[in-house]
Amino acid sequence: MKDAVAMRCGRSARFAHLFRVCAALLCAVPGFAQAAVPAKPVYKDATYGGETVTLENRSIRLNIHKRLTGWGWVEIFNPAGEMVAVLDNLGEASPQGFSGFAAPLRIEAQKYELDKGDFGQRIRFPVRMRWYETLANARIKNPALNDPLLDGTVTITLDRDAARVRLSYEYKPLKTVSLRYLRGPWLRVGAGTFGVKKTDGIVPGVEWLEGDEWSSGTDYMMHPRALRVAPHPFKLAAPVMTISHAGTALALSWNPLTPVMEGKRYPQPVYASPNFIDRLNHHVMGLSLPSVAWGMAENTLPIHAVTPAATPLDLRPDTPVKLEAEISLVKGTSFDAFIDWVKRIGLPEPPPPRYSFSDALDRIARVYNTGFWHEGKGWGRTADQASPQPPTFLERYVKDGHDRATAQALGAKIDWALKQLQTRGIKAGGRSGIRNFSMWKPEERLAYGRELMSQQREDGAFAFDPDGRHNRDLQHIAAALLKPLGEKGSTGVDLNAQPTMELLILADLTGEQQFRNAARKSLDYCLRMERPDTGDWWETPLRSPNLLAAGNAAVAYYLGYKAFGDQRYLEKARHWIRSLLVFTHLWQPGEITELYNTKPCLNQTVWYGSSWVDNHVQWEVLRVFANSSDLGIDWRAADPEIDWHRYQKGITVAVLRWMVDHQDSAHKATPPASDADLAKRGVLDTFFYDVHDSVAGDYKGALIEPSVIAVNLWSVLDREKK
Fold first, then answer.
1. Are 586 and 237 a contacting pair, CB within 8 Å?
2. How far apart are CA 613 and CA 601, in angstroms?
């Protein structure tokens, strides 16, 4: 008998082993892992119904779980098997006008369809949103509340090889219903795992966070403008949001131009790091309706409550709703995930220019030859403000300009101006923001280089000195009214980049090895830095994200690469030039033209003044590329993965929209009072405005000389002639 029992037990063990082997083989077949034993959920804020379906490839895994009431929530895992985020549901809504219900309604499914092919793996859920009958019968005796409110299809498609997931939410209202909100993709990043920890987070043109910084925080802005949880969609420079932690970055992207309802576009992006919306220890990235672009007040995020929404979302049976998005996982930081998105989407083609580039050059040259010129004084708005300093592009126009009569006249003016500089002992001005050291006397170059070295710390850094060389009026105003813009002695990448550029240029002109060595110490000191800061130090918080800092750092590191051949410097130059993209408008709304406009920084002037999240500024990015052109830097050759030639053309096409043209009555612009008469008379034609409102679309602020535009025009035209 013992032998019989042992035999049966042996057969059972062999059958069990065979079953496990077969199950393992089946699970290894793509698309068949769904039949495996259900994975145990990690996310605890959902009631598990005992069923799980899994989609996976080499780069990402999705465990989709069923609640007691229906499918589903999605847990997202990186290649190491670590859960990084949760899609909390297949949609959620908060009905308006039913105060008897304390919870929002989930959009759920009772079944699914699964298929696979060359596209990857796809799962479709026929979804429905309805009142929960038990709650309805217990609280309100109304049979009509048992009827479904909407149905539709939610589709999740996993790419065959890449860590990308496409989401499609299609809803069809079955009756007229008014909602406080309707949420589509709602990612809870870090929920149930790493919580509020993060490496960095980016919403282009709105947020660039590091470490434990809060989104909508008051680090660099003051309330109420600091609140950016639900910004106007036009303020986003690109339709993508990212969060990263411990080497894995998660991005949520979408096409803002895809209609979400009849006649309505621009789904509302929502970003909270940490999740201060729900007061929970994770991060939120999501899309919802209604949108600030068509009715909802900015940052008044509708949450489920008994009080009515300020702008309800009214749905009818003839108004279907569609939300689409894509989730991607990238190894690295949020910045890496953002650049991955840029590479996949590609830089957009610039729109047709307001003027042809050659016409724009002629227009600029004529202004410098007429209204902006004062005989015997030089160039300036008025004779009292005139200076003999020649604008940077005029020498080139004299040589190659299309309007030869204007070029000849400008040549005579330049000859006169250079004699004045020499006679008066005035140093020649800068080239697009960099001093024109080639026109300095040898002893002047040496003295200035040594002065720069005297400002450098032993560790190689150049520090913030608000009482000395960084002393400006706005620094004192900020310190008196609120708090200092930066701490004396602190440092950052732009505080180092500008003197480093100058030291490297001086080293080439003088042959002084000590200048080169000092520059290298500064470059090495800043290698650890990742986010551009300390630009615009004269008016904005020192450590806040800054475009000019990114551009200056890129130029400094590329010059360092040329000087020393250090590959680390080239990689850092690429990092910094790519940082410009976080500030650059890479999509085009239908109502206003702002493609390739740039945000200068993500902060406010002196904490409480102008919000640069709300406004574009173009001179800084133009200066970066003018400097690059003057120094012979070809960014597409240095960084061939990004089409930097198209980028420079884009920012140059963009600024032509900013230019004054006293004959263009349709131009939506307001010159400052001090320049209004000159602008009206055409004296300041081709000058460009300091500020563009990213939502209203109007131009305002100071008027800036257009020579930096001309340098970029020449650069683009030279390439197009080759």
1. yes
2. 7
The H-or-E segment that residue 713 falls in is helix 707-721
Angle 459-470-215 from CA coordinates, rounded to 5°? 80
Distance CA 69, CA 375 (A): 83
DSSP letter, residue 456: B
DSSP code at position 92: E
Q: Which of 646, 634, 552, 546 is nearest to 598 (CA)?
A: 546
Tell me the CATH number at 441: 1.50.10
Over the stretch 361-415, which tens digit does the pLDDT of each residue have? 999 999 999 999 999 999 999 999 999 988 888 999 999 999 999 999 999 999 9
DSSP letters, 43-105, are --SS-EEEEEEEEE-SS-EEEEEEESSSEEEEEEE-TTS-EEEEE--S-EEEESS-TT--SPE
97 close to 78: Cβ distance less than 8 angstroms:
no
Asked if residues 237 and 583 have their Cβ atoms less than 8 Å apart, the reply is: yes
Instruction: Clarify whether residues 297 and 361 are in a common domain.
Output: no
Q: Is 65 helix (H, G, I), strand (E, B) or coil?
A: strand
Across 2-24, b (16+ Cβ under 10 Å) vs e yields eeeeeeeeeeeeeeeeeeeeeee
Cis peptide before 442 (omega within 30 of 0): no
Q: Are residues 322 and 368 in the same domain?
A: no
The residue out of 319, 345, 371 marking a domain boundary is 345
H/E segment holding residue 268? strand 268-272
In 3D space, the residue among 574, 481, 494 whose CA is nearest the CA of residue 536 turns out to be 494
The per-residue pLDDT of the chain, averaged, comes to 90
pLDDT digits 0-9 by tens, 26-38: 444 443 344 344 5
Q: Are 124 and 205 members of one domain?
A: yes
Asked whether the beta carbons of 603 and 682 are under 8 A apart, the reply is: no
CA–CA gap between residue 118 and residue 160 (Å, rounded) = 7
Helices (H), 482-540: 493-510, 513-525
672 and 552 in one domain?
Answer: yes
Following DSSP, what letter does each residue of 309-335 receive, concatenated?
PSS-EEE-TT--EEEEEEEEEEES-HH
- Inside any domain, residue 21: no
Q: Could you tell me how many residues make up the chain?
A: 722
Residue 67 belongs to a domain: yes
Contact 268, 252 (CB under 8 A): no
What is the Cα–Cα distance from 579 to 572, expressed in whole angstroms? Answer: 11
Average pLDDT over residues 243-251: 98
Is 302 within 8 Å of 309 (Cβ atoms)? yes
Give the pLDDT of residue 2.
42
Please answer whether residues 105 and 39 qualify as being in contact, where contact means their C-beta atoms are separated by less than 8 angstroms.
no
- Residue 1 domain-assigned (yes or no): no
Is omega for the bond preceding 380 within 30 degrees of 0, making it cis?
no
The C-alpha torsion from 322 through 326 and 327 to 328, rounded to 10°, is: 180
DSSP letter at 538? T
Provide the residue range defining the domain that includes 536: 357-721
Q: How confident is the model at residue 438 (pLDDT cuts 50, 70, 90)?
A: confident
CA distance 229 to 276: 9
Q: What percent of the chain has pLDDT over 70?
A: 90
pLDDT digits (tens, 9 = 90+) for 643-697: 999 999 999 999 999 999 999 999 999 999 999 999 999 999 999 999 999 999 9
Distance (Å, rounded) from C-alpha 528 to C-alpha 496?
Answer: 13
Q: How far apart are the first and last CA of the chain?
A: 94
* Cα gap 290→295, rounded to integer Å: 7
Number of separate domains in the chain: 2
DSSP structural state of residue 464: -
User: Based on the domain organization, do 341 and 436 belong to the same domain?
Assistant: no
pTM over 0.85, yes/no: yes
458-469 residue pLDDT tens: 999 999 999 999
**pLDDT in the model for residue 502:** 96
The residue assigned the tokens 């884009």 is 650
